[in-house]
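User: Some background: our group keeps a shared notebook of sequences we're curious about, and every so often someone picks one and asks for a predicted structure to add to the entry. Today it's my turn. The entry only has the sequence so far, pasted here. Could you supply the structure so I can complete it?
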Amino acid sequence: MHPAHFFDEPLAQQILQISLSLCNESYLVGGSIRDILLGGRQISDLDIAVEGNGFEIAREVANRLTVKSSFVALDKDRRTGRIVVSEPTNMTVDISSFKGPGITQDLYHRDFTINSIAVHLWDIIGGRVSEAIIDPLGGREDLKRKIIRMSSSNSFTEDPLRMLRAFRFSSQLGFDICPEARLGIEKSATLIQNVSGERIRDELEIVFRSNRSAKIVEQMADTSLLWEIFPELRPSRGFEQNAFHHLDVWGHTVDALENLETIIDNLPVFLGLFSEKASNYICEQPVTGRSRQWLLKLAVLFHDSGKPFSLHVDENGRRRFIGHEKVSKTLFLVAGTRLKLGSRELSEVSSWIEGHMRPSILTLGNPSQRAIVRLVHRFGTHIMGLVILYLADLLAAKGPARDLSDLQRAKHGVRRVIELFLKEEETPIIPLLDGFDMMSEFGLEQGPHLGSIIRWLVTEQSLGLTRNREQAKEAIRRYLKQNPVTQKKERT
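Assistant: Of course. Here's the predicted structure to add to the notebook entry:
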């Protein structure tokens, strides 16, 4: 909701008035004040600092509200509670006790000057925001200058997550991190290891919502903060590639991330008629609150991370990275587990990383329909993300051995892949024979090979080569002659 009207709404008024009735010394602080001063930014979250016990006041406010809400115990020791309002609108309200004897001292203990601004709740209700601002650290001036400056020299040691928050605000607001804050991050970067994976994950996800996150990631690497969060990526910096690439592994990764953002911002250019479907796919949330866009960016970050660990130099001196995609997948799973990603997030990203070399068939002159069908069936619902990652990767490979006309062929091939996927998503192909048929008809043992055979059969059906059960049985007999290892041992 626009800040000019937010506090006129009945819900906001109710929250402020109940808070004041419980503690007269109550102030609106932080991001909502910042967004009011910036103008035009929507407000959905409030931070209130109180002289009393913020934990108990938050609990009581939640109890008294006449809308659907719940109380969340954020930190009882630090006397901080949260109110989550789900109806009539989504809103969170954090209420915390002063970090010091009064509001001024509290502001000195906050993260950045642009968030160390307060207004008494009575002045908010009375519409006197501009006239009643408490700003001992010059946050308003820093908002005008568009810089992110620490509220105190202890800012990062008090809460190391603030280092990542500095990049989050830079990403969200388009502000620059001042030199002193950058230096502070460099000196304190190792402290981020003391922060829980969940907190780091949530800040990173916000960074990756921006269409300029590639630049932010570069800056994080320059301060070493990125290497402390993802030590798996450090070896890629300065690691030489081969003639297909014009940059080292890390430079290629950043370039690919920037390309991904260009693709997302210009989907019709790359995907034509399928751009709307792709946009919906990217915006979907495999885990509530976290879209697939952030997962694609994680995949780009890690897609070549295994190259420093899989280098092979052949007899002609050519550098090759055989199996690097599998190593990259392993490195990602370690990092993703550390960040407490959901199982679906881990599955999607690891599938893209492990498979990111497979769409290279699309740079061929005219890949066969069988090749297209097999690619779609191999990756199923993950195929859309895979081909988007592939395009970003291909755009970042501009070495002398690369045929730059590959891009046009790849774009055409990607559209063929998406067209087939959407067609079969709308009308799924049901296998003419299932696993039980395979075991009873052909004496096969139970195991993962059955899935491979069924996927092969579905490919035959998609190509129109197998139309009924008898044809399917004959096709499987041919398959088993070529793949005898999948057959069950003969009975005695």
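Suggested note for the entry: The longest helix spans residues 406-426. Strands lie at 26-29, 45-50, 68-75, 80-87, 91-97, 118-120, 147-148, 176-177, 312-313, 319-320.
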